[in-house]
């Protein structure tokens, strides 16, 4: 979606799309490309990688009870200079992955869940994973929540995670703030803010 120029893909009114690998903002020079999924029966099922802001700019918007599931990684801002944005809004709107969700791989990533929406992965969420990356994760509003095995805010890059306004985060394993496994960079800068919200993490 947006190979070179600007691409728009809309899934609405109960439509369903099944794909294998999906890239939004695929090549350098592509601008303002997006996938928009809206409506309670609307679904996007991706069987492998879902790349939002691959080599350039891309956005993923999920609203009004729509769902997106990817069996592979979901990334926002994959390479240096790229920018990926995700907005999940509305009751029962869901972004889920059977693998990792990475907000800022080497580029800039922003992911927001509000108004009773959900971000769910059985694996890890990274916010600002690699050197030079800049990631922001915001979960806000009553009944908005995220679920993951591990949360890393500021891996080897800059990561900011905020849970606020009666939202909930449930992390079943480790929560890391500024640090990524055994390869922590001096550039790592992470933050986690919990403001009038619930953060569940046993480890």
Walk me through what this model shows:
By secondary structure, this protein is mostly beta strands. It contains no helices and 23 strands. The chain has strands spanning 8-12, 16-19, 22-24, 33-38, 43-46, 50-52, 57-63, 67-70, 74-76, 83-89, 94-97, 101-103, 108-114, 118-121, 124-127, 134-140, 145-148, 150-153, 158-164, 168-171, 175-177, 189-195, 198-200. Strands 1-4-7-10-13-16-19-22 form an eight-stranded parallel β-sheet, with no helix packed on it. An eight-stranded parallel β-sheet has the order 2-5-8-11-14-17-20-23, with no helix packed on it. The radius of gyration is 16 Å and the shape is globular. It starts with 7 loop residues before the first strand and ends with a strand.
């Amino acid at each position: 979606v947006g190979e070179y120029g600007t691409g728009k893909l809309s899934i609405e009114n109960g439509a369903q799309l099944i794909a294998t690998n999906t890239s939004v903002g695929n090549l350098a020079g592509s601008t303002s490309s997006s996938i928009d999924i809206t409506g309670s029966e609307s679904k996007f099922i991706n069987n492998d990688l879902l790349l939002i802001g691959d080599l350039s700019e891309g956005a993923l918007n999920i609203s009004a009870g729509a769902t997106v599931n990817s069996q592979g990684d979901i990334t926002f801002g994959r390479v240096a200079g790229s920018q990926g944005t995700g907005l999940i809004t509305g009751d029962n709107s869901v972004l889920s992955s059977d693998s990792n969700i990475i907000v800022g791989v080497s580029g800039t990533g922003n992911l927001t869940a509000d108004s009773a929406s959900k971000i769910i992965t059985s694996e890890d969420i990274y916010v600002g994973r690699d050197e030079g990356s800049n990631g922001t994760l915001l979960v806000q509003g009553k009944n908005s929540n995220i679920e993951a095995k591990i949360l890393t805010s500021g891996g080897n890059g800059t990561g900011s995670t905020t849970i606020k306004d009666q939202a909930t985060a449930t992390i079943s394993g480790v929560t890391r703030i500024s640090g990524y496994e055994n390869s922590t960079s001096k550039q790592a800068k992470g933050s986690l803010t919990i403001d009038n919200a619930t953060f569940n993490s046993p480890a």
